[in-house]
Design brief:
This is Saccharopine dehydrogenase. This protein folds into 2 domains: 175 residues, NAD(P)-binding Rossmann-like Domain (Rossmann fold, 3-Layer(aba) Sandwich); 169 residues, 2-Layer Sandwich (Dihydrodipicolinate Reductase, domain 2), CATH 3.30.360.10. Strands 3-2-1-4-5-6-15 form a 7-stranded parallel sheet, with helices on both faces. The chain contains 10 helices and 16 strands. The chain starts with a strand and ends with a strand. The chain is an alpha/beta fold. Strand 8 and strand 9 form a beta hairpin. Helix 1 crosses helix 9.
């Protein structure tokens, strides 16, 4: 049965890779690439690839969309939730990967007031929730779990313009949770040293992402955190100094962006997920999942979005159940391990589990 998928921001760095992954994995899916300038050349040639006018700042961003869409994937900024609400009102399933924590929480609040008739997957965690997904998957048999995510941002990696959105979060304190109790922490604080899959060892610092909000909603997870570092130690040290001294807060947005957004020709993106919890006998268990994508952070994000879309397109289990879901909801049980890991590996992502 043919299905139509709209990828908003489908011409962009991440959106075009989502389109290519879904195109190659699903022979009967028709893909619409949504953007404000649909006359631009398509990112690759296929009779199943088309363009569509979509403007997320319009009163109705889906005014030109067909009535029979099976899914919308949003890979572009939706500042007023116009696209999200337009999709919900049309009962179209949504996978959204665009929201940092403040707008993420606002979207949940808005959606909670609606009677949802389709699934909404808010996959705005790091790399479309990829580390959170694997964190939950390998913590499924444990209790009182702590999940710590560490990301290594390569200076020469490719990046879309929205990838530096976190720069405006670096002066805002945020809450982390331990067994339901909130504790306020500062960005670029509490360093922990980590060795990444490629052998690079460095201090990683706190960053506000939705992962620490969503993972603690898993009943067995008591706390979660996210930390980041650059693959050039001087860059990490400089950013920490600017944030801690208060200088970062005084810099204008354009200057901040010029410092953090300088995409290169491409580099691997590496993530470490550390899990600690108790088994059924009360014994403390430690596990580490190492994720590396040779094609970089935009490709890993695209793969994370695509696997969320894949579950909805497959119409399996509770995939079409109305409600708000997070990326790690895909890991319903350890039985999903083989399928999830195989999907990522089919896209060239390297997964290593250290038990």
């Amino acid at each position: 049965m043919e299905k139509k998928v709209l990828i908003v921001g489908g011409y962009g760095t991440v959106g075009s890779q989502i389109a290519k992954i879904l195109h190659d994995q699903n022979q009967e899916v028709q893909l619409l690439l949504g953007g404000r300038h649909p006359g631009k050349p398509l990112p690759f040639a296929s009779p199943r690839l088309h363009s569509l006018l979509v403007n997320t700042t319009a009163q109705d961003p889906l005014a030109h969309a067909p009535d029979d869409l099976s899914l919308i994937i949003n890979a572009v900024n939706d500042p007023d939730d116009s696209l999200l609400l337009a999709a919900v009102s049309r009962r179209i399933p949504v996978v959204d990967i665009t929201r940092w924590t403040e707008r993420f929480s606002r979207a949940i609040e808005r959606l909670s007031k609606s009677e949802l008739q389709s699934p909404v997957v808010l996959a705005s965690g790091w790399m479309a929730g990829t580390p959170a997904l694997f964190g939950k998957l390998y913590a499924a048999d444990l209790q009182d779990v702590t999940i710590d995510i560490f990301a290594l941002y390569a200076m020469q990696d490719k990046a879309g313009p929205d990838s530096a959105a976190y720069m405006n979060r670096l002066t805002i304190p945020f809450d982390v949770y331990t067994k339901g109790a909130a504790r306020t922490v500062l960005p670029m604080s509490d360093p922990l040293a980590v060795t990444f899959p490629g052998g690079f060892r460095t201090n990683c610092y706190r960053l506000d992402t939705p992962d620490h909000l969503t993972l603690v909603q898993v009943p067995s997870v008591s706390s979660a955190s996210f930390r980041i570092a650059f693959d050039q130690k001087w860059a990490t040290t400089a950013l920490v100094s600017l944030v801690r001294s208060g200088i970062w807060k005084l810099l204008g947005q354009k200057l901040r962006q010029s410092i953090l957004y300088n995409p290169g020709q491409g580099a691997a993106h590496e993530v470490v997920v550390q899990i600690e919890g108790k088994d059924q006998r009360g014994v403390r268990i430690r596990r580490q999942i190492e994720i590396s994508d040779p094609n970089g952070q935009t490709h890993l994000t695209a793969t994370g979005a695509a696997i969320q879309a894949q579950r909805i397109l497959a119409d399996e289990g509770t995939a079409a159940t109305p409600g708000i879901f997070f990326p790690e909801s895909l890991a319903a049980s350890q039985a999903d391990e083989q399928w999830i890991t195989a999907y990522y590996k089919s896209e060239g992502v390297k997964i290593q589990v250290k038990l």
